[in-house]
Amino acid sequence: MALAADKMAGIRAANIVREDFAVLCREHNNANVLTLSGRFVSIEENERIVDAFLATEFAGGRHADRVAKINALD
């Protein structure tokens, strides 16, 4: 689903299977769409992933250049 979502302008989707990955995708890539695994990750872990994703802000700084390059592809 992340691949399909990324086809839309302005979308930076991430397929996340661990809570720490959710934090990193938000901080470093400013991900704004989250896709989850129903097969390999428990409901409880997915809930923690969603909470972490929503609670994390984009770090900006040195990561802003990368996000600008990604946005330029739209």
Q: Overview of this structure, please?
A:
- This protein is mainly alpha-helical and 74 residues long.
- The protein has one domain (2-72): Ribose 5-phosphate Isomerase B, Chain: A, CATH 3.40.1400.
- Helices cover 50% and strands 11% of the residues.
- It is built from four helices and two strands, in the order αβαβαα.
- The chain has helices at residues 2-5, 19-29, 43-55, 64-72, and strands at residues 13-16, 33-36.
- The chain has a two-stranded parallel ribbon.
- The relative contact order is 0.20.
- The model has no long low-confidence stretch (mean pLDDT 95).
What keyword list fits this structure?
74 residues; mainly alpha; Ribose 5-phosphate Isomerase B, Chain: A; two-stranded parallel sheet; 4 helices; 50% helix; 11% strand; flat
Low-pLDDT runs: none
**C-alpha end-to-end distance:** 18 Å
- Work out the helix count: 4
CATH A-level architecture: 3-Layer(aba) Sandwich
Coarse shape = flat
Q: Helicity level, as a percent range? A: 40-55%
CATH superfamily: Sugar-phosphate isomerase, RpiB/LacA/LacB
Give the overall pLDDT as a whole number: 95
Q: Largest sheet, if any?
A: 2 strands, parallel
Radius of gyration: 12 Å
CATH-derived topology: Ribose 5-phosphate Isomerase B, Chain: A
Beta-strand share of residues: 5-15%
Number of strands: 2
